[in-house]
Write a structure and sequence with these properties.
This protein is mainly alpha-helical and 223 residues long. Helix content is 52%, strand content 0%. The chain has 10 helices and no strands. The chain has helices spanning 5-16, 27-37, 50-61, 82-95, 108-112, 116-124, 132-151, 169-185, 199-202, 205-215. Helix 4 (82-95) crosses helix 6. The chain is extended, with a radius of gyration of 25 Å. 10% of the residues are buried.
Length: 223
Amino acid sequence: MLKGGREFWNVVRECTAAKDRPTLVDAEQLAFVFEARLNPPAVPPPHFDEHLRLYYEAMARAIPSLTVDRTPEQFFTSPFSPAELAVVRVALRKKAADSARGADRVSYKTILTLSNEVLADLFNLLVGLESCLLKVLTLLIEKRIRSWAEARKFFPDSQNGFRAGLRTHNNSFVLRAAIDRARADGKTLFVAFVDLKNAFPATDIPTLWMKLYTAGVAGPLFD
């Protein structure tokens, strides 16, 4: 039996307080794993077309340091507008509560106190810091590229993820519809679920730059 309130709360603190736990994986082990995952392999896998990769690497080096935005809409040249910042503001509100601050100690909450007009003027100066401000600028550029890709219909109808107004649940519905149709017709349905291992480091960056440039991405935002 507990004799008094203090003794009771001491037991509660002992049972609920955070306890030091031994670290099963040290920082050096984590660094070894993530260096391999976040960087391209030293030796390209056999299925890589090495000649094509070297070709794209050479072509990427030939891209001018200053390119010309030839899109009629001027996706990559026109200044950021307050309307674009209004769209980004909606995304920021979801992150503001638990965001980590950068070296400048500016949080998403602070950024949200600024008007869309002030933010547009700031980002049109192309001032990027290793901070929340840089992340917002990156989000603006990403939305420009996404708008360009949507306008050019680069996304296939089957791509439902990472697109406004679409969800990966759509793919579940398509799969269920295909299953029901196969059953109704008495046919066999073959389905493959593909998971690409280390997809990020396997993306060849020079090839990516070259693909974007030849597709029509050029101008200040690309430079």
